[in-house]
Design brief:
The chain is mostly helical. The chain contains six helices and no strands.
């Protein structure tokens, strides 16, 4: 379990370091997740007994953190409750923003799906 936390933190640190050095637009945690995915994919590819045990330890640590993910939203909920008057004053703008961003996300998702489908049909 300790090794799993070590891997998760190293991936996070590596992502933050790459973001800091390159100054790119991608946030450090996103890069860290990509490094974690690469680590897990490589551990699957070079699956020896020791590598498999380490990958399972990392999965166990991640599952343990995900079990308490809901607790992370409590401070955000308290913050929203503390600024309720501000939210009510800007309710229309917030509602329009939510609707437009949801619609834009749906359109982008459908467009990406159709593009991938079109490209995969051309290859076959």
């Amino acid at each position: 379990m300790l090794y799993g936390f070590f891997v998760l933190l190293c991936c996070q640190l590596l992502g933050e370091a790459v973001r800091h050095v390159t100054g790119g637009p991608v946030p450090g945690p996103v890069l860290g997740i990509l490094f974690l995915v690469a680590y897990m994919a490589l551990s699957d590819r070079f699956a020896t007994r020791r590598v498999t045990e380490r990958a399972r330890a990392t999965e166990g640590a991640a599952d343990g953190l995900l079990a308490y993910l809901g607790v992370m939203f409590v401070p955000a909920g308290v913050g929203v409750a503390g600024k309720l008057e501000l939210i009510l004053d800007n309710g229309t703008a917030i509602l329009v923003t939510l609707l437009v961003s949801t619609l834009a996300t749906l359109i982008a998702t459908v467009a990406a799906f159709r593009l991938v489908r079109l490209l995969s049909e051309r290859r076959s």
